[in-house]
Amino acid sequence: MRGNPVYLGISGGPSTWSGNAGAYNQLQLSFTTAAGQTSAQLYLHGWYGAGTYYADDVVLDGPGGNTPGTPGTPGTPQTTTVTNNSIGLSWGASAGTVTGYRVYEGSTAVASVTGTTATVGGLAACTTHSYAIAAYNSAGESPKTATTTASTSGCVDTGLPKHALIGYLHASFANGSGYVRMADVPAAWDIIDLAFGEPTSVTSGDIRFTRCSVSECPNVESDADFVAAIKAKQAQGKKVLISIGGQNGQVQLTTAAARDKFVSSVSAIIDKYGLNGLDVDFEGHSLSLNAGDTDFRNPTTPVIVNLISALKSLKAKYGSGFVLTMAPETFFVQVGYQFYGGTSAGDARTGAYLPVIHALRDSLTVLHVQDYNSGPVMGLDNQYHNMGGADFHIAMTDMLKAGFTVANTGQFFTGLRPDQIAIGLPAAVSAGNGYTSPSDVQAAVNCLVKGTGCGSYTLRGGTSPSLRGLMTWSINWDKYYNWEFQNSHEPFLNALP
């Protein structure tokens, strides 16, 4: 290899790296398969956002290959019939002699059949699962297929439209764009996130929501008018949430006491203003993974474990109608495909939202990752994508739907239901880096929803007719720029099938 730093590694196994701007030099490592292991995934990738590297003559020196006589890999599985507690699958037959097929969820075989269809039962309603298929005979088992993701039916009706417009309202500051009274928020907005609730100190867990002062926001309404306007919005079917964190609100729940204070203080805000739920907008250094915390399904880092516990407590307290949304940056989600902080491969924050999303996936209303203020991110096509165009939104959203293998762990992060996914965007050029024109945003949505106009990108997660919609920072900035975001996208979303 040569050029910028390049990693060579085995998923779930060892890795090494080197950087050499001059001539090619050799990069090598050794690995040993575990008992019963018949395949290994080798990867080459660069350092996050560092630029181009060159690699050539990749050689595997060792036994390699399938065990002689084993079947070929089955055809890619497809979802057939779905009920509240079961998912049906079908796939193409394997080449060679086949005794049967095993259906895997992760590393666990959940069904074994002799034909090319199966129904996995005993599932909970409104849950998402990813499956891969392997054929077997007396000689051994074939490599597994690529995974397919499907969800059981029986989801609770959130009261949201099929395609929603979601926006942040500067409720505690003006931020240069001017204050917008709650009563003056147009009816186009289906979820209104009050920005922001912030902690009294980074580790206190004590969240306070202080409305904008008269000195900063001369047109600010009284508390009574604010609450009345919230009730009026809710009567129209809108959801109003408190958003916790933001750029300046670092929240680290390092102790059980901080966790409990978070639950009680957030509950107090929700109850005071009669809100519908909570948006988790943890940025900066709120979430990171301790070294050795490598299983996103069973995290051990206190700030992660305590946040999960706190959110579950709030969901349990307020019931099925509680609206829970999250607005992580790409660094904390999609970058986990390349680097996962707990493996000590780079920044400890990479992928740090994945354990939280996974643990709350069955309670999560909408995940709207911020497709802005981001560096280049590698997609499922193993190419870097840059913010500001349709391609970035297509690739980043496809990762959330299809799921992906978490870097250096060999573990698969199962994708979300399409109705749980929205695209996060800046409303205007002043609102954040990565502004995308309405035409490019709509091109991305048409690709994701209908499979049209995708350019050179192939959707790994398939189309998403029930994609939830668009989120923006912010309603205030949209008003400042004459409502371009709202006026462009509300009729577009309403016209989608």
Automatic annotation (TrEMBL):
Keywords from the UniProt entry: Carbohydrate metabolism, Glycosidase, Hydrolase, Polysaccharide degradation
Enzyme class, UniProt record, top EC level: hydrolase
GO molecular function terms attached to this record: chitin binding; endochitinase activity
Pfam families with a match to the protein in the record: fn3, Glyco_hydro_18
Residues annotated as domain GH18: 163-497
One Gene Ontology biological process: polysaccharide catabolic process
InterPro entries, per database record: Chitinase_II/V-like_cat (IPR011583), FN3_dom (IPR003961), FN3_sf (IPR036116), GH (IPR017853), Glyco_hydro18_cat (IPR001223), Glyco_hydro_18_chit_AS (IPR001579), Glycosyl_Hydrlase18_Chitinase (IPR050542), Ig-like_fold (IPR013783)
Protein name: chitinase
Species, as recorded: Amycolatopsis vancoresmycina DSM 44592
